[in-house]
Amino acid sequence: MRAAVVADDLTGANIAAVLLSKAGLDALLEFGLTLGSLERDACVCSTGSRALGPEEAYQAVRQAAGFLSQAKPRLFSKRIDSTLRGSIGAEIAGAMDALPGRIWIVAPSFPSAGRTLENGVLLVNGKPLLESGAAHDPLRPVSCSLAADMLNLSMHPLHRFRVESAGLDCVRSGALRAKLINAENVENLAFLVDAANDNDMALIAKAVAESKVPVGLADSGPLTYAVAKAMFPEAARSRIVLAVGSVAEPARRQVEAVIKAFSPVRVELEVAKILSSEGKSEIARAALELSQAFPQYAIATLDSLDPSKRLDLASLARERGDSPASLSAMINQAMGKAVALAHLENPFDGLFCSGGDIAQAVCKELGASALRLVDEVVPLASFGYCVGGIANGLPIATKGGLVGDDDSIAMCARRLSLAAIDKRLG
Description:
Helices cover 41% and strands 21% of the residues. The protein is an alpha/beta fold.
């Protein structure tokens, strides 16, 4: 088993299972643990213990974690509430006792939901927890905003553990890795770790993965996701090609955003060569680079996306006794051929096309007879599947070159990556 998660309620279990699936694991949410659960790639369950007192919560988690420990999960997470409701300390102790020998990382932050831990203070949308709705929870209201105090108050009196803090300076300087490696008396030790954004989560995950120290996680979901990606990078690798033929300014900014977000391998087709006697060799070069440019994202663009390299197609057409539309069609066809040849050589798992003419040219070269469109990633950006040809069933997203905000292509790329994982997991 690669990963196991024990949550204290079904909502949290749902979140954990989705995040593990996004990381590329085959995560199943089990409504009851059985011997079959131990055969899972990733198993998620709920003890339904959010409203229980320390003794009952401790026993529920210890039993579930102990059962799952038989599968020797490489990653174990005790999913906790991002506002630390429930018998959090007692539940962490139950997981500790069921899986001895691990240092525990407690990280309640869920930055995308506005929950962060900064200087040991749990914040909800930038305000201390006590000023949030969680302070008035009818079953388990919180009584303070200091996470360490909340942990201590919720511990089982007979199963207590040490809590040491690791602030943002420790996380961002890279010192957390050394802190894990050099920790002494690790039994019943938990580090309460600050995180203000998703980058902090990634840094914590990096420290965990690089330390090689046996670790247990107690978090609200994002850290488990980040650690799963760091520990099992092969799980989330999907071969996604982004074909951008538009040279409009919005497309240029969107390509820059993709490069910043994913660091893709970039393959640039030279328009001057496409329109010359070197056209076939230029297509072959680009196709070869695209077929080899993985493990995850590769982006094909025209060199004319850079305004300084843009040709005057109208003047060139006059010189050649041709039309700008004809030259544009040759360029689109070249992009389509390069993508199709790359897919034929080394099939990829998802395809994005920016520019309607590019999408049509690519689909034609792939031999697609239709697109089965099922969703809209962002307004005017469609998602679906190729029908027919050498890419039958391939997830595809398309949009116009002028469509969308700067992150629109990146959002399409993420959607394709998730679709590829879904398809791989069946």
